[in-house]
C-alpha cells in the first residue's frame, strides 16, 4: 500500500479513471448507441448498471480521499471489478471491449495493492471473465468462440498485475533510495553548515553589489558586527572593501592585513571567485593572524631565552666586572666631575643590560601558573598596604572597591608581579607630569560579563594612538632606559591565568590598564 502524497495521487488517478469510464458508459446509453455498437444481451441491466456505476464512483471519489486501512482499498478494487464484470456480462462478453477495461482496472489496483492481495483481485477478474463467458455460452451458442479471448484477458489480468507490481516494487526501491540519499544530503548540508558556523576562520560570500549572502559566526565575531546577512558590506567594513578592490585589480598579489575593530584582532583576508551560473560571487576568508604572530613571538622569545640562558654566565661575569670597576672609579678621590659622570653612565648601562638579561631569562624559565581562589577585595587591600609601606613619600596609591564579594582564580605571585609592574609604570609616568605621582586602583564587577574587573589608572601623559597597538609587543618601549618586556610579560601572565589585560585611553588624559579576571568556577 502506497502511503503519503504519492499514494494519494495514484488514488485520485484511479478515481478519475473510473469516473471517465462511468461517464462514457452513461453517454453511450443516453444516445442509444449501445444497441448499435454493442451486442447487448440484457439492455435493462446494462443501462441500470452503467448509471449505478457512475453514481457509486462519484460517492466513492468524494468520500474515500485518504484510506486509513488496506481493507478499504481492497474493497474499492473488488467492487470495481464486480461492477465491470456485471457490465461485461450484460454487454455480451468479450466483443463489447469491457474486458479490456477490467485489465486496466486490475493494473491500477495493483499499484495500490501489492503481493497476494493484488493477485487476488487479478484472480477474481480472470475468474469472472471465464465464468461469465461460460454462462453466456449456455444461452448463446455463439459465445463458445469467446473462450480463447476470455482466457487471454484473464491471463492479461495476471500478467498486468505481476508486471505492475514488479515495476512498482522497483520504483519504491528507487524512491526509498532517493529519499535516503536526500536525507543524507540534508544531513551533510546541516553538518557542513554547523562546521562553517563553528569555524574560527571567518567566511563571507559577497555578490557583485558587495551584499553579504552568507556570513558565519566567526566572521561576525572577527569583524565585530551583528548580523551581516543581506547587508551591504561597504559601510560596515570599509577596510575589507579596500582589500577586495586591491585583489580585483591584481589577484596574484596577497592583500594587506586589516584591523576591523580598534581593539580587535589583526585579520588576513583572502578572496576566491565563485561562478554560480551567470552570477559572479566572491568567497572571502578572514584569518586571525594575531594568535599566529603571538605564537611566533613566543617561539622567538623562548629561543632567545634559551640562547640567553646559555651565555648568561659568560655575559654576567664581564658585566659584573665592568660594573664593579665603574663603582671603584666613582669612589676614587682623584676622579674629576666629567669622569664621574662617565663612570655613572657605565654603571647605569651595566644595570640596564643586566635587567634585560633577567627579563629574557624570566621568559624562558617562567613557572606554570598555580591558580588559587582569591578574595580580590582582601587581596588588594593587603597589596596596597604593603606597597605604601615601601613607596617613597612622593608616590601615592589609592584603592576603590565597589559591589559585594569579588572572587577569581589566579596565581597570587603572578598577580603581584603583574600589578607591581602596572603600578610602578603608572607612578613613573604620573610623576613626569606632576610633582606627586599617583595611581588609582578600581575594583568592580562588569555588568555585561558579570566578571571581576580591576582598573589601574594614572594621570600621566597617556599613550598616543600610534603607539597604542604596539605597547604589548616585546621590546617595545617609549623610554631610553626601558627593556620593553614589562607589559608583554604582564599580559602573558594574565593569559596563563585565563585573565585578560587591555589598555583603555582615559578620558581627560592618562592611562587605564584593565584586568578582566576569570570566573571563580572556571578551571585553569
TrEMBL record:
CDD domains: HATPase, HisKA. The chain crosses the membrane at residues 16-33, 45-64, 71-91, 97-113, 120-138, 144-164. SUPFAM superfamilies: ATPase domain of HSP90 chaperone/DNA topoisomerase II/histidine kinase, Homodimeric domain of signal transducing histidine kinase, PYP-like sensor domain (PAS domain). SMART domains: HATPase_c (SM00387), HisKA (SM00388), PAS (SM00091). It comes from the Bacteria. PROSITE patterns: HIS_KIN. Pfam families: 6TM_PilS (PF25323), HATPase_c (PF02518), HisKA (PF00512), PAS_8 (PF13188). This is histidine kinase. Residues 310-521 form the Histidine kinase domain. The keyword Metal-binding does not apply. Its EC number is 2.7.13.3. PANTHER family: SENSOR HISTIDINE KINASE, SENSOR PROTEIN KINASE PILS. It catalyses: ATP + protein L-histidine = ADP + protein N-phospho-L-histidine. InterPro entries: HATPase_C_sf, HATPase_dom, His_kinase_dom, HisK_dim/P_dom, HisK_dim/P_sf, PAS, PAS-like_dom_sf, Sig_transdc_His_kin-like_C. One of its GO terms (molecular function) is kinase activity. It is an enzyme of class 2 (transferase). The keyword Membrane applies.
Amino acid at each position: 500500500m502506497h502511503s503519503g502524497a504519492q499514494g494519494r495521487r495514484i488514488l485520485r488517478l484511479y478515481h478519475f479513471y473510473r469516473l471517465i469510464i462511468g461517464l462514457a458508459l452513461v453517454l453511450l446509453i443516453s444516445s442509444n448507441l449501445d444497441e448499435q455498437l454493442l451486442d447487448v444481451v440484457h439492455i435493462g441491466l446494462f443501462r441500470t448498471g452503467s448509471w449505478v456505476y457512475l453514481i457509486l464512483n462519484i460517492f466513492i471519489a468524494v468520500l474515500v480521499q485518504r484510506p486509513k486501512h488496506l481493507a478499504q482499498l481492497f474493497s474499492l478494487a473488488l467492487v470495481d471489478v464486480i461492477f465491470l464484470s456485471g457490465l461485461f456480462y450484460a454487454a455480451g462478453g468479450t466483443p463489447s471491449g469491457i474486458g479490456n477495461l477490467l485489465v486496466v482496472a486490475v493494473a491500477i489496483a495493483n499499484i495500490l495493492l501489492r503481493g497476494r492481495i493484488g493477485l487476488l483481485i487479478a484472480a477474481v477478474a480472470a475468474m469472472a471473465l471465464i465464468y461469465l463467458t461460460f454462462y453466456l455460452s449456455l444461452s448463446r451458442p455463439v459465445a463458445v468462440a469467446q473462450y480463447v479471448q476470455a482466457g487471454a484477458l484473464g491471463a492479461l489480468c495476471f500478467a498486468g498485475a505481476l508486471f505492475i507490481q514488479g515495476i512498482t516494487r522497483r520504483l519504491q526501491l528507487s524512491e526509498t533510495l532517493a529519499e535516503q540519499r536526500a536525507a543524507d544530503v540534508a544531513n551533510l548540508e546541516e553538518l557542513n553548515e554547523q562546521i562553517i558556523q563553528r569555524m574560527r576562520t571567518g567566511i563571507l560570500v559577497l555578490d557583485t553589489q558587495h551584499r553579504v549572502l552568507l556570513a558565519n559566526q566567526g566572521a561576525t565575531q572577527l569583524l565585530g558586527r551583528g548580523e551581516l546577512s543581506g547587508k551591504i558590506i561597504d559601510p560596515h567594513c570599509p577596510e575589507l572593501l579596500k582589500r577586495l578592490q586591491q585583489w580585483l585589480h591584481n589577484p596574484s598579489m596577497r592583500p594587506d592585513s586589516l584591523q576591523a575593530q580598534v581593539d580587535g584582532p589583526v585579520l588576513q583576508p583572502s578572496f576566491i571567485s565563485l561562478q554560480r551560473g551567470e552570477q559572479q560571487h566572491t568567497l572571502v576568508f578572514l584569518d586571525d593572524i594575531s594568535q599566529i604572530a603571538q605564537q611566533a613571538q613566543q617561539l622567538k622569545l623562548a629561543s632567545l631565552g634559551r640562547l640567553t640562558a646559555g651565555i648568561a654566565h659568560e655575559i654576567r661575569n664581564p658585566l659584573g666586572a665592568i660594573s664593579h670597576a665603574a663603582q671603584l672609579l666613582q669612589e676614587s678621590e682623584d676622579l674629576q666631575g666629567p669622569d664621574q659622570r662617565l663612570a655613572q653612565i657605565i654603571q647605569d648601562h651595566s644595570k640596564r643590560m643586566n635587567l634585560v638579561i633577567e627579563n629574557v631569562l624570566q621568559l624562558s624559565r617562567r613557572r606554570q601558573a598555580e591558580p588559587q581562589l582569591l578574595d580580590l577585595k582582601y587581596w588588594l587591600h593587603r597589596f596596597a598596604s604593603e606597597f605604601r609601606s615601601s613607596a617613597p613619600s612622593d608616590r601615592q596609591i589609592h584603592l576603590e572597591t565597589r559591589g559585594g564579594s569579588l572572587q577569581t582564580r589566579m596565581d597570587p605571585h603572578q598577580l603581584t608581579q603583574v600589578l607591581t609592574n602596572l603600578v610602578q609604570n603608572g607612578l613613573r609616568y604620573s610623576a613626569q607630569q606632576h610633582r606627586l605621582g599617583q595611581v588609582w586602583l578600581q575594583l568592580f564587577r562588569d555588568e555585561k560579563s558579570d566578571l571581576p574587573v580591576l582598573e589601574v589608572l594614572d594621570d600621566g601623559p597617556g599613550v598616543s594612538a600610534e603607539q597604542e597597538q604596539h605597547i604589548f609587543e616585546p621590546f617595545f618601549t617609549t623610554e631610553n632606559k626601558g627593556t620593553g618586556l614589562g607589559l608583554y610579560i604582564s599580559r602573558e601572565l594574565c593569559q596563563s591565568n585565563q585573565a585578560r589585560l587591555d589598555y583603555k585611553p582615559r578620558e581627560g588624559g592618562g592611562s587605564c590598564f584593565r584586568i578582566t579576571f576569570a570566573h571563580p568556577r572556571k578551571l585553569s
